[in-house]
Structure formats: C-alpha cells, structure tokens
Amino acid sequence: MSKMTAVFLPGNKQVEVRAVPVPEIGPDEVLVEIKASCICRSDLSLYYGNAVISGGDSNQFVCGHEPAGVVVRVGEAVTEFAEGDDVAVYLGVGCGVCHHCRTGHFYLCAKWKCLGFTMDGGNAEFLRVPARNLLRTPKGMSHLAAAISTDAFGTLFSAARKLGVNGLSRIGIWGMGPMGAAGTLAAKAMGGRVVALDPIAERRDFARSLGADLVLDPRDASAADQIREFAGGEGLTGAVDCSGQSVAHNMALDALAPMGKLALVGEAASTTIKPSDQLIRKQVTVFGSWYFGIDEYADILRLIETHAIDLERLATHTFALHEAETAFRMFDARETEKAVFVR
C-alpha cells in the first residue's frame, strides 16, 4: 500500500509529520492531490490540545481544513467531477439529506464532521472527501488562492453579505489578522467604506495597503471619536469582530449606529457586554458568522473575479509539509500571518 506524508497535531505544541497510507475512496468519494492547504488560527486549538471543534480523538486525524488541489481519482458513482479538475474543498461533511445539508449548510448538520478536526484534513499529500464537498475552481486561479478563497475569504464574504454591505455602508473590522484582512478585501469589493483596527502596526499598514479607508490602533484614546467622524456622526452601519476579545466586542457595539449589525467571527469562549445600552436601546443585531453556505461559493468566485482580488497577498509565508513544526511554531508566535503548505 502506497504511503503519503501527513501532519498531525497531538497537542501540547507537538507537531508530527507521519507517513500514512494513501486513503482508499468509496463510490461517491474522490481523492484530491493537495497543492495548497492553509493554517488557520483555529488550528492552534489543536496545537495546544483544546480543540474548538470536538468529536472523537483529534490526535488521530490529519489536520488542515482549508485545502485545494487536483482530483486524481473518482469513485464509480461520481459523475460531476473528473480526474484533472482543479478544486477547493468545503470543510463540513454532512449527512447530505437533512434540511441543513439540502440548504447548503453542511456544518449545521447534526451528524457533521469537520476536515482536520473530526476527520482527516488537508495537511497531507492526498485527501479523501465526498464529491459533494468539492468546490470547482476556475482556470487561472492558483491553488494557493483557491485554498484562501474558502475559510479565510469565504467566511468574511458571508459575514459581509449578512451585514448587507453596499455602497452606503460604513464598516468597522476589529482584528487585522488573515480573517480581518480578508474582510477588508470583501467589504471594499462590495462597495463599503472600511475602518480597520488592530494594535499591531504592521497589520495596520497591511490593512491600509488592502484599501482600508481608515486604519486605527484601538488603544488610541481618540479612536472612538475618529470612528464617529468617519461614520458621519451617527455610527457604523456594520461591524465585524475577528479578534474574539471582549474589549473589541464592546468597542464595536459602542461604535454602531442605531439599527446597526455586528458579526462575531473570532472565536471566544465568553464575553461581557452591556445589553441595555448597546443592544436594546439602539435596536442592534448581533450574530455569529462561521464559514459560508456551499451555495455561496459561486458568488465568492464572482466577486474575486469581478474585482480582481489578489488573495495570494494574504499568504505571507509558505512551507513544505516536512516543515510543519516550524510553520506552526512561527504561526503561533505571530511571525507569520496567513501561512500555507504548498506542493
């Protein structure tokens, strides 16, 4: 049986690169040769040993939930994909027949599994997935861009769409890591004006280069006043938090105009807010936004193409699979932003 290289995260900041069998596929499955697979901040929960998505022993699964590559084998029941197709992969594998699966939200399925967390993921040479999880990518899109187009860009596209971003929107984005940077690209492409906030100067500079209209250090005593002036005096129409920090939640809620909306994207186990002043009196909507419906991917690609969005700019470092220990150590230390395994 042939072997492949794969990356595992057993916890306690341990990274193991193992030789494991190339998976066999079933009738409705495909085998994808992985060409690019991103590291995400949520992967650090596996790296530390406190997985944000649980179900089974995560130590036994190949990590990685943002892969893209080429179909190299198809099951006998697969008719819509063929060997040689360029694809990205949708991270949630559902039952396929429940209400949530049939509306394109596989990750809401009661029986769902998640690439890299509760089933084998994409930080490997090959990946086995159901054909229904493939996202066909267009000619000319690199595998690197395709991998970034899913969790990083796709998640923030979906959040911006839920906020109703348009040419009249005034959007604040807290946290300019890879997700916040992707959110800046998405909101700008949809026509919104964006204020980007991050305490790290290099991230603020990057946000400015991506087209943010105003860039602020949230610790600046004048930041709230500058946001109010940017938003025309009344407040932001929408906000996105990618930091997962309670201080950011409060700052965003305070900055919202009446009837504004806040999308929570950054993972957080708990937070403290002031519902009466921040929500009830202003009729503000707060919602969680995690990933995207699979039916949204066509629009995600359309926005990328129409606005010539260069997703590769978000990848600051690339690594080979055998460099996984270095990749996760640097990512954990914030010595990289979006880091991607490439082959």
TrEMBL record:
- Name its co-factor(s): Zn(2+)
Task: Report the GO molecular function annotations.
Answer: oxidoreductase activity, acting on the CH-OH group of donors, NAD or NADP as acceptor; zinc ion binding
List the InterPro entries: ADH-like_C, ADH-like_N, ADH_Zn_CS, ER, GroES-like_sf, NAD(P)-bd_dom_sf, Zn_alcohol_dh
Which terms are listed as keywords in the entry? Metal-binding, Oxidoreductase, Zinc
What Pfam families does its record include? Answer: ADH_N, ADH_zinc_N
Sequence ranges assigned to domain Enoyl reductase (ER) in this UniProt record: 11-341
User: Which protein family is it in?
Assistant: Belongs to the zinc-containing alcohol dehydrogenase family.
Name of the protein this chain belongs to: Alcohol dehydrogenase catalytic domain-containing protein
Q: Which organism is it from?
A: Paragemmobacter straminiformis
